């Protein structure tokens, strides 16, 4: 197979709402056990984290996967808070650097755009600056939501959102205070072409710390192993509604969202709400977690019509008397499970 030579460094420019021109640079280097995307924005760690999230989510709709390189992205100007025109420029700089897409030879690339759903390959719009950049005849300008409504259009393909399956499941977050809530985890999958060596490398978990990223990847890889034919077929992005939390009781909700997204389980009429973990997802086992009384009370208080509640089998003897009947009166159902499967 012929190898494509990738440029060492690429640049894509954008225009900010205040009229400044910002440059996004992307440099490719061997992965060498480093993160697949690194973003550098001096004195703005939150912006760097957001840029990393954007790029990782936008990669979901790429058919081919290559984990051999790391892309380092940087901005030469700090945008004002809330100015998101740089997002499309970062996505395109990343793609050009890796040889996924290329503008015409010799063209300077300008792009303005943002999205609330990069994992769907969607480009929602752009914030108009006082004036668009002055271009040469050979330059390329892409405006999100106008010239470019989805990333598939870069290569003349259909909207990739049609091939993305996204499912959310909810889990109880309990801290003993007013912030107790049902929080969601969303799993989006996109079919891959070609063989995948390491399942965990195909799973992106932006916006959370390294420990949670590793735990999510291990849980999904293990649960897919239990499926028998679940490995090597998907590119995956995982998002959390509340990215700052402690514990691993979200894992049953995570695994079930993944199974639903891949068509491995029946979709409930309402939400799927779950609490549980496992030390052996590869065997399909569901283990118990702490906080039975508080979490089941929270679920009962917020359950609604059509919701399906999944709890560890070890909780069955601890449930309050009449708990299942109380949920049924709300139109919800509950099951205490030992294993994942067709539930």
Automatic annotation (TrEMBL):
This is Uncharacterized protein. It comes from Pseudoduganella flava.
């Amino acid at each position: 197979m012929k190898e494509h030579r990738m440029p060492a460094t690429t640049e894509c420019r954008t225009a900010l709402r205040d009229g400044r021109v910002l440059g996004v640079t992307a440099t490719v280097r061997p992965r060498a056990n480093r993160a697949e995307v690194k973003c550098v924005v001096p004195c703005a760690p939150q912006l760097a984290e957001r840029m990393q999230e954007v790029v990782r989510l936008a990669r979901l709709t790429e058919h081919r996967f290559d984990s051999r390189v790391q892309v380092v992205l940087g901005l030469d100007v700090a945008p004002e808070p809330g100015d998101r025109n740089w997002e499309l420029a970062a996505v395109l700089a990343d793609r050009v650097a890796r040889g996924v897409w290329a503008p015409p030879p010799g063209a300077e690339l300008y792009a303005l755009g943002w999205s609330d759903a990069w994992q769907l390959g969607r480009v929602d719009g752009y914030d108009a600056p006082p004036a668009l950049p002055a271009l040469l005849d050979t330059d390329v300008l892409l405006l999100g939501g106008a010239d470019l409504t989805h990333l598939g259009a870069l290569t003349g393909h259909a909207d990739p959102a049609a091939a993305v399956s996204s499912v959310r499941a909810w889990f109880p977050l309990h801290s003993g205070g007013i912030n107790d809530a049902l929080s969601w985890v969303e799993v989006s999958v996109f079919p891959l072409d070609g063989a995948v060596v390491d399942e965990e490398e195909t799973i992106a978990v932006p916006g959370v710390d390294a420990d949670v990223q590793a735990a999510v990847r291990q849980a999904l890889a293990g649960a897919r192993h239990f499926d028998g034919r679940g490995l090597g077929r998907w590119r995956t992005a995982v998002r959390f509604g509340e990215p700052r939390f402690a514990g691993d009781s979200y894992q049953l909700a995570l695994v079930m969202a993944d199974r639903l997204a891949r068509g491995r389980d029946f979709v409930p009429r309402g939400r799927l709400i779950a609490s549980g973990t496992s030390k052996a997802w590869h065997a399909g086992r569901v283990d118990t977690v702490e906080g039975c009384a508080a979490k089941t009370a929270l679920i009962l208080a917020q359950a609604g019509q059509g919701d399906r509640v999944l709890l560890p089998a070890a909780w069955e003897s601890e449930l309050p008397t009449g708990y299942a009947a109380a949920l049924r009166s709300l139109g919800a159902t509950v099951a205490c499970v030992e294993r994942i499967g067709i539930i």
